[in-house]
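Good day; I would like, with your permission, to put a structural problem before you. What I wish to show you is a protein chain and, alongside it, a tokenised description of its three-dimensional fold. Here, with my thanks, is the record as I have it:
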Amino acid sequence: MRQWVRAGKPFPMLTCYDATTARHLWAGGVKTMLVGDTAAEMILGHDSTLPVKLPFLVELTAAVRRGAPDAFIMADMPFGSYQCGDDEAMKNAMRFLTEGAADVVKLEVDASFGPLVERMSHAGIPVVAHVGSRPQTVRARGGYGSVGRSRREADEIVATAEDMVRRGAVMLLVEAVPAEVSQRIVDIAISPKTTEPVPVVGCGAGPACHGHVVVLHDLVGLTPWHPPFVTPVANLGESLEKAAGEWAKLVESGEYLKKDHPYRMK
């Protein structure tokens, strides 16, 4: 990924939650995948990312790894897995690397998480610092929305990103901010002050980011609503409904396997 950044080659990333989908994403040219806590919404049907549990996401991460063995896998640390003490956070992050076979772990951070990011980095845990809009704070904020539109908010986000890089974060994920904010963060991430370039992944964060990630279900038309920064490229929801309808008609007609059952008595 650092080589892509040096070469100025933007890279695509999608969320992924299972081995079968991972195999198809890899075959389609998506080499970086995020096992996101959005599984709470897309897989489990919750109204936010908060309820998903650590063991479930670890298992999904391992599944995605089996489906795409050579992909770059980013694991999302769920709500409650890193806010209840640094020792607990360290253990949980290590589970994603050992049991889930992830390449990096992602934490939603503000300035207060600096010491934890630094401790993880020193321990050899590669950390992605998620700044900007942070979905895990949805209850505290009273809803989802973009951030960084005021000068004060923008400066705070940029300062947090810079601090995370200084403390050892190997990547940044920037969500739902104006393009001017992500441009400032990219300038920091590839400045001469950094030993290695720090890839910046945007999620609705403007064109300057080195890579871009969206929720797969939004992109392929499997959700009734999608963020304004996602333009669906397929309508798999409609296709799935049609396939279900065809199956239902076939079975209800009584014709299924009536003439072509594959097994015969010897």
In short: The radius of gyration is 21 Å. Residues 236-252 form the longest helix (17 residues).
